[in-house]
Description:
The complex is a heterodimer of chains A (431) and B (462).
Chain A lengths: L1 E6 L9 E7 L6 E2 L4 E6 L4 E5 L4 E6 L6 E3 L3 E7 L34 H8 L27 H9 L18 H10 L22 H16 L2 E9 L1 H13 L9 H15 L5 E4 L4 E4 L5 E7 L2 E3 L2 E2 L7 H17 L12 E5 L18 E14 L4 E14 L5 H16 L9
Parallel strand pairs in A: 12-15, 15-16
Antiparallel strand pairs in A: 1-8, 2-4, 2-7, 3-6, 4-5, 6-8, 9-17, 10-11, 12-13, 12-14, 16-17
Helix pairs in contact in A: 6-7, 6-8
Chain B lengths: L3 E8 L3 H12 L4 E5 L5 H6 L1 H21 L16 H25 L3 E4 L1 E6 L2 E6 L2 E12 L3 E3 L11 E2 L1 H4 L8 E5 L3 H12 L3 E5 L11 H13 L3 E3 L2 E7 L2 E6 L2 E5 L3 E4 L3 E3 L13 E2 L2 E2 L12 E3 L10 H15 L13 E3 L4 E6 L2 H6 L4 E7 L4 H5 L5 E8 L5 E8 L6 H9 L4 H5 L10 H10 L7
Parallel strand pairs in B: 1-2, 1-6, 2-3, 6-19, 8-15, 9-10, 9-15, 10-11
Antiparallel strand pairs in B: 4-5, 5-6, 7-16, 12-13, 13-14, 17-18, 20-21, 21-24, 22-23, 23-24
Helix pairs in contact in B: 1-4, 1-8, 3-4, 3-6
Amino acid sequence: MGMHTVKLPDVGEGVAEAELTEWQVQPGQIVQEDDILATVMTDKAAVEIPSPVTGTVASLGGEVGDILPVGAVLVTLEVEGDGNAAPEPEATPVPPDPEASPDVAPKPAPRPEPEKKAEKTEPTKPSKPVSAPSDGPVRGEHDRPVAAPSVRRRAKEGGVDLRQVRGTGPAGRIIHEDLDLWFSGSGEARSGSGRVANTAVEEIKVVGLRRRISERMAEANARVAHITYVDEIDMTELERLRDTLNREHGGDRPKLTLLPFLMRAMVNAIAKQPAMNAHYDDDAGMIHQFGGVHIGIATQAPGGLMVPVVRHTEARGLWDCAAEVVRLAEAARVGAASRDELSGSTITITSLGALGGLATTPIINRPEVAIVGVNKMQMRPVWDGTQFVPRKMMNLSSSFDHRVIDGWDAAMFVQAIRRQLENPATLFLED
Amino acid sequence: MRDIACKVLVIGAGPGGYVCAIRAGQLGLDTVIVDGAPLGGTCLNVGCIPSKALIHAADEFHKLDAAAAGATPFGLSASAPTVDFAKTMAWKNGIVERFNLGVGGLLKKAGVKSIRGWARFVDGKTVQVATDTGMQTIRAENVVIATGSEPVELPDLPFGDRVISSTGALALKEVPRSMAVVGGGYIGLELGTALAKLGCRVTVVEAADRVLPQYDGELVRPVLARLEALGVEVLTAATARALDPAGLTIDIGGEARTVAAETVLVTVGRRPKTDGYGLEELDLDRVGRFIRIDDRCRTSMRGVYAIGDVSGEPMLAHRAMAQGEMVAELLAGERRSWDRVAIPAICFTDPEIVTVGLSPAEAEADGHRTISTLFPFQANGRAMTTAREDGFVRVVAREDNHLLLGVQAVGAHVSELAAGFALALEMGARLEDVAGTIHAHPTHGEAFQEAALRGLGHALHI
């Protein structure tokens, strides 16, 4: 028998590390070649790591939530034959460049120290279930609270429903100190209404996609000076056109939503204001202004926000755009979007459709410099000079990186989009 | 006779009623207690206490008998012992009388007015008591019904000279030569065992397919073994038909058979006492025959409470006492509700059975994944040195957090372990807590610790 170490492979261009988001195996488990060992999360894509060999899992290289550098030991397998690992382990693989992401990893990536690790991950297993749970699972909804008679009496006399009290004793037992805390902490919250304060605190580890989102949002908000510009757009004409086109091509082409028109309007506006289609590398003090318009579409996926990218929108027609948006949104929702489909946008659209609200303050998808937010469309009375007329109105809430884009330019950009959407024919003018 | 008005009226002076009255008196409530029988109810007069006295006397006699037969492993011998059964009964009666006086003294000390006589409800706030000196009307703000229970009679075997209830068994003039016990519950087996030890030829006739049906087979097995050793015949799936001079005719396996029975003890159960005192006037909600109560022992009528056997299972004195105490405190304005984790139950057979909390089957039925382990007295030092190695202690705990859900034991002297078992359950002990508590050596209690250790996978003495 030999040991075979499986290292975290290079999971994408330029990726130096990945976060461990799920173990598919446990120590002692037998895995076949190509069985999935673990799921790791890179920039925004989840990648499954298959086993290259058949063997028995001897140890795992980290815990869920750990950041592993590419090349770090992911799993050690016991295999037939010699395996690929010397009995005494080779030197630590190349650690991640500590400068690359100084504050991303809350824990240092674990270094393989096989002997110690073996101790940690292979608890001596006696024949019976003995390992004492430190405090056991949280009390279930229908479980009766566990408390000594003196605690129960004190709670009863104090008007406390013990089902509401978190027990910190063994097996969730409620002890006098828990009641002390209850009485001292939430006195006023219990008065009058008969409602009681819920002091439960659930600890949810922020890992995977949610951690990515958290980090990126915080960084964008901290580093970018946002300016948000909201204006109202009369969509009546565009809606008429959209309706006509959908009726004409209902059977043979993808249904047109508002998005392809907006994308077309943005492409045209960017042609006049290329500064909007750029990345601002603030560390290097450099703006990369792009020729191709790669529009990110912010999409709500089950795990959180994802931004699939419609590449080269400037080269796509209306229906092409529509089809691509549908395809990418679906891929993102089912988690099938590739890393390439989730990166490389140069400007972003965020839309919550019917939930779009009156106005929003979108956060820029850094390092981009502009994001266009679509609000809810609704019929509103509009004064046409002589009377109120019903018009389909919609707001656009767009944010810009005020460090590199002045308010004037931001306003010009939104007005250019507005003029096109209000006069749909101009969307298709070749000037 | 002038009417009495009071804050609390307790009807029935059994363990539930007198405890309720004492506690109410202690709390300064104007309290009256009424009973037509001597203070102490079934428990003190014709139940727990006298039966334990009889069982003890029988045990002592049986030991002498064993010594006389040269049957002790440690070499005792004695000449053939005899029992003056009249003295046995007189001694038992002396204990009962001390209790009657003791309860009376406790009630008086607590400032409770005690009235002898049978009460009858007029309405939910008023009763009339037929006393020696005439009819006494009592009006109360609150009434606590604690009338208890009574033995169930069989239509074919009405109580009489030769057919007796447990009450009759505790008032025998002499030990019958032969006795059939109809009903193999704990009362029948306790009394049957005692009388067998005193030299009576006992046959147990049980209609179900096993005796002590509320206990699982593992717990009952040592008791059956002992009954066989004592020469008690246990007939299951057998129905009593009729009593004639030759004995008791029974149906067993479709055939008639006659069982020697100078006396027949009928112990087929107890039913709540709800007749004969005007309870129907109140039209309280019922659960079966029992009065329906909530978690504060309140009935469906405001200001009317019910405690003890009349309020439901388990019909046990200590449950009634805990309820009585709680109701008194409620009436004094304190906040209380029934919150006990477990009500221990003991069967004073030989060996004794103790159950507290959930059995393995009940725990599984409650949806728990459980650990259930037992430690046999064969491996317990104290059990070996008392020449009684039959039985065991068994623990039932949740698999996920090891919280103790139940403890059962069967063995000689295990009734005294009930306190520790119940305390562990009420305190919310885990297996680790029991295993981590030093249990004095050499005692039967060590088996509790060892059963817990075994549940954790590292028993030391097995």
